[in-house]
Write the structure tokens for this entry.
Amino acid sequence: MERLKITQGDITQCQVDAIVNAANTSLLGGGGVDGAIHRAAGPELLAECRTLGGCPTGEAKATKAYRLPCRYVIHTPGPIWHGGTADENRLLASCYRNCLAQASALGCKTVAFPSISTGVYHFPVAHAARIAIDTIQAYLQTHDEITCVTMVCFDAATLAAYQQALEETEPKHA
Ligand code: APR
């Protein structure tokens, strides 16, 4: 499905309509991709985030992008991995689905995601990649207003995991 791409890079440089931020429930910044996005966007991003009153895990809230080369930042707190028995799978799928729903509502056509929850939140990356790819593909099948979703992987191991997950979902050539 050409509408889903897997790349390696820095999401703060993506020139798409919306980039997704792997945030925490306070929405007040942090390390990892959250820190990178806030650094690149500048202080107005945090100022707008302060007005949002946080965000529950699995849900998504959008802000302007300020100094970033995109139109919106969609913030979503992913689940912290606790071994897989605390509803982590459903919550991670909700992050992807709710971010795409926000993007559609904002009239976005192109969206870039980081690998949500697989850093500080320790969600196993191969497992997270399957959930991400399956959820994005399911959404794209019923939402042709989104023309391209890009998974932006920061390192080679993450890139390989998402490429593997995408290959596993492609129809096998008879
Ligand atoms: N571009 C793309 N991906 C990035 C970038 C970047 N500039 N920087 C880091 N990443 C990748 C990480 O390598 C990892 O694969 O984003 C993925 C998610 O890792 P984290 O940023 O640690 O996010 P997460 O695991 O969801 O933990 C969220 O960390 O930064 C805090 O405030 C955040 O408390 C929240 C928690």
About this structure: The chain is about 40% helix and 20% strand. The mean pLDDT is 96. The two ends are 17 Å apart (CA to CA). The beta strands are 4-8, 18-23, 61-64, 72-77, 110-113, 148-153.
